[in-house]
Amino acid sequence: MDPRDKVLDKYSSKVYKNRKEHVITIKDGEPNVISADTRTVPGIMTNRGCCYAGAKGVVIGPLKDVLTITHGPIGCGFYSWGTRRNKAKGDENTKSFLEYCLSTDMQETDIVFGGEKKLRQAIKEAVEIFDPECIAIASTCPVGLIGDDIHAIAAETEKEYGITVMAFSCEGYKGVSQSGGHHIANNGLMKKVIGTGDASPVKYSVNLLGEYNIGGDGWEVERLLKRIGYNVISIMTGDGSYATLKNAHTADLNLVQCHRSINYIAEMMKTKYGTDWMKVNFIGIDTTKKSLRDLAKYFNDPELIKRTEEVIAEEEASIAQGIAACQEKLKGKKAAIYVGGSRSHHYINLLNSLGVDTVLAGYEFAHRDDYEGREVIPTIKQDADSKNIESITVSKDETYYKERLTEEELEALRADGIPMEEYDGMWADIMDGAVITDDYNHFETEQFIKELGIDIFFSGIKDKYVITRMGVPSRQLHSYDYSGPYAGFKGALNFANDVSMATHIPAWNMLTAPWKKTPTLNGSLGGNE
Ligand code: CFM
Predict the structure, then answer these.
(1) How far is the CA of 346 from the centre of ligand 1 (A)?
(2) In 246-366, which ranges are continuous DSSP H helix?
(3) Does the structure show a pLDDT above 70 at 529?
(4) If you measure from the C-alpha of residue 163 to the centroid of ligand 1, how many angstroms do you get, rounded to a whole number?
């Protein structure tokens, strides 16, 4: 039996029927269709988060000058406070509230009699203490159940205090994972923030979308872009701000790093403001080089193209020696990558360049297009859960709409291999024979470690210590443990060093994990064990 069949064989027939669509082995030349973005089988220890995590934790939370109030019991606010390493710095022009955790701390009486009064009071106190320009209200489960009208309160308090108040009905139970929360947050930013600024457009300007500055990734990408001569108008949303996001519509081009969490804004900005978007990947050396070159080709300015090559040459030279040393140590190793909705794909190329094969990969909450490519979107069936997430339509903005490149020019770029308004899925880079598990769980993690002989496992805090206790090195790819940045050239070297260290710590030679000693078969022969 191949490893996939062996693992799935342990499930009951009912669970097997579901999981066989989510766990597949990649075969060359096959369409390799996978089931994704569907409900987890009850009882399975999945690694997913909730809608509130996607809206508040991922997209809204990193906006440093937005004061986010979690409307719900205290646990939701507390456990989403400071746990994701989306770094940010305030300065003389922009306040940063990221250190704070604001919650309405709903109690039983609020659930019985309603929490609206408490929310109004919380907004009043927040305005008095922090004097923010923008407040975000993020609802958690009970608010949706008891029906507090957070949108009415947002409209009221907005008038009362003369600031922007956004309300997000991102109750945890909505949709099947945090992915629904991304969509809700994207809609809110589009409705209330983007396009409300009055800055004048500047030359060679870009927004960086789907970059959350985990471990400083966004800062590293911004440094590269600025070195070449681009103006970064806003970053969505790592170290991002309400102040800069308001003027995002003035940028010439949107660069999309994590399409899963932010493709909605990219598409809506194209319709509303005519902003073109391009898929980029600043994780990996070859991919960073390609993204920078694609970007230069979009603007098609000889000076920019020349500067791009100079920066690439300098940056690459500065890491060459370090990368070569790591390649020596890592060649032939086998990796597993389980992250949320785009990183599992984004890191494959970087690992490849270090000589590491990804033999097992999966996402927590990706949609089929993240695996199979954007072109499958029209074939994805809507179900009751996806219909439960608000979807908004936008139209051309009378004042700010501007066509950047013509459709013919965009087609010519596409023909040149530049991903304008398109992206590949994981299939484009994963090796034949790799096992893919969508919405992965603890059971499969353990079983595949045993079956596939994994040398290094990239995932998150929830499974990190299960994996290390099995004697397998583990690095967190959500938070980068305490390290980073991993983006760009210098980031690639940080990553290579961290992986080399993780796999070469002498401690691994001093222990044999229990499962390695357990016989796979037990039996007796002639009365002897
Ligand atoms: Fe995008 Fe992310 Fe990811 Fe994501 Fe996330 Fe994250 Fe992630 Mo953790 S936005 S989909 S919801 S790249 S928090 S910065 S690492 S699961 S793969």
Answers:
(1) 11
(2) 259-273, 285-299, 302-330, 343-346, 348-353
(3) no
(4) 30
Q: Residue 226: what residue type?
A: K
Sorted by sequence, the CB contacts under 8 Å of residue 41 that are 6+ apart come out as 15, 18, 19
Report the atom number in ligand 1 closest to the C-alpha of 479.
15
Query: What confidence tier does 256 reach under pLDDT thresholds 50, 70, 90?
Result: very high
Name the band, by pLDDT with cuts 50, 70 and 90, for residue 458. very high
And the tokens for 463? 């499974």
Predicted pLDDT at 514: 82
| Cis bond before residue 83 (omega within 30° of 0) | no
Is the Cβ–Cβ distance between 194 and 242 less than 8 Å?
Answer: no
Kindly report each contact of residues 407-415 with a partner whose C-beta sits within 8 Å and lies 24 or more positions away, as own/partner: 410/276, 413/297, 413/298
Q: Which two tokens stand for residue 376?
A: 């499958």
3-state secondary structure of 171: coil
Q: Which protein residues touch ligand 1 with a CB less than 6 Å away?
A: 54, 58, 84, 178, 210, 212, 214, 258, 260-261, 339-343, 364, 478
Closest Cα to atom 1 of ligand 1:
258
CA of residue 58 to ligand 1 center, whole Å: 7
Q: Are 184 and 170 in contact (CB under 8 A)?
A: yes
Rg (CA), the chain: 24
| CB 179, CB 365: distance < 8 Å | yes
Cα 212 to middle of ligand 1, angstroms: 8
User: Residue 58: how many CB atoms within 10 A of its CB?
Assistant: 27
Phi, psi dihedral angles at 58 (to 5 degrees): -95, -55
Q: Which residues are tagged catalytic?
A: 50, 53, 84, 182
Distance CA 140, CA 76 (A): 7
When pLDDT is averaged across residues 359-386 and rounded to a whole number, the result is 95
Report the residue among 170, 342, 464 best suited for mutation to probe ligand 1: largest number of ligand atoms under 8 A from its CB: 342
Q: pLDDT band at residue 512, thresholds of 50, 70 and 90? A: confident
Helix, coil or strand: residue 233: strand
Can you give the pLDDT at residue 528? 62
| DSSP three-state, residue 358 | strand
Q: Which atom of ligand 1 is nearest to the CA of 339?
A: 17
Please name the residue whose Cα sits nearest to atom 10 of ligand 1. Answer: 341
Q: Are 214 and 484 in contact (CB under 8 A)?
A: yes
For residues 348 and 337, is the Cβ–Cβ distance under 8 A? yes
**Residue 525: partners with Cβ closer than 8 Å, 6 or more residues away:** none
User: Residues of 296-314 as b/e, b for ≥16 C-beta within 10 angstroms?
Assistant: bbbbeeeebeebbeebbee
Residue nearest to atom 15 of ligand 1 (CA): 478
| 59 CA → ligand 1 middle, Å | 10
